[in-house]
Amino acid sequence: MLKLVTGTAIVAAVVLVAASASMNFTFASSLGRTPAEGFILGAIAVGVDVLKAVLAILIGTAARARRWIFVLIGSGAFVLFASLSLAAAFGFSASNRQAVLGDRDRSTHRLAALERHVAELRTKLQALPPHRLLALVDEALTTARTDPQWIASRQCSSITTTRVRSLCEGIAKLRSERIAGEAALRFEQQIATHDSEIETLRQAGGGNDADPQARSMAHALGLSEAQVQRSLSALLALVVEVGSALGVYIALGHRLLAAESPRDSKQTDDVVSVPRIQEIPLQPEPATTAVALNAMIPPISVAPRPGVAVSARHAPSRNSGSQPRSSNNDAS
């Protein structure tokens, strides 16, 4: 079970590192004047972000080993890298939020403009005179133009009789009706096109609040909507950067401690298992000590002086193989 939890935590930490690196690369690359400069800046941001995640593990290991110089240097580098990554993540979050909200605002404005235009078109359509379908009007015009009076009047350019006048007035009405029909058809086509676009914009969130989350929190906290939006962007950047910086260390921390514990316990066992040698003082019996000392001291032969009797105590033993030394006087 612990292995499963550890594996899940490692995967989540790697995902956060990848997300942070992608955010920093996207924002840093947008600051370059050319694609090459943007790629260089993005590569720097990715390297800093990955090194920041590795430094957390190295600093923790060095602290347990009491390597304080490395801890001091690594902590300074970690703070520097984390600050740069946090700034890039905050820039990405703010720019992304602003872009999304800007698109929603533009959609809302476009929707309102289309709705006003559709209302104007409907008003114009209703203001048109009654008219029939264009096919019926064209058919009536064709029939009227085949009348002999139309040809005789040279297409109503010379009105000489009442019948010709009546025919020309009918053709003029048909032409007006056709113009109204063409206008109605044009208005209807525009209305249909705008209605389709309005439906698409409404499905995309047009007409609603651009940022309902910030709006609700602003009302609840008594802040402006812009302040809440900036705070949310900063919170998102902070969560991603903290997770990418410390996620791997948190996921592997207990495994590192478990790997070091057996080695420490082994060293402790080696030290404890060494038996203490207790020096026991020897206290031999006095008689035994005297006998041993007499055995170790060789017999001493003393030459007798003239006129001095040698006592039995100092007489040489017959059992000993040594012969008595002759004095200089005897030799002489």
Strand percentage lies at under 5%
Please summarize the sheet with the most strands. none
Number of domains: 1
Structural class: mainly alpha
Radius of gyration using CA atoms only? 56 Å
Query: What is the global morphology?
Result: rod-shaped
What is the CA–CA distance across the termini?
A: 109 Å
Question: How many beta-strand elements?
Answer: 0
- Unreliable stretches (pLDDT < 50, length at least 5) are 264-275, 308-332
Q: Give the number of helices.
A: 10
Q: Indicate the mean pLDDT.
A: 78
- Percentage of residues assigned to helices: over 70%
- Element string (H = helix, E = strand): HHHHHHHHHH
Describe the structure.
- By secondary structure, the protein is mostly helical.
- It has one domain (8-263).
- 76% of the residues lie in helices and 0% in strands.
- It contains 10 helices and no strands.
- The chain has helices at residues 2-29, 35-64, 68-127, 134-145, 148-152, 162-203, 212-221, 225-273, 286-296, 328-331.
- Helix 1 (2-29) runs antiparallel to helix 2, helix 1 packs across helix 3 and helix 3 (68-127) runs antiparallel to helix 6 (162-203).
- The chain is rod-shaped and about 120 Å long.
- Mean pLDDT is 78; it is low at 264-275 and 308-332.
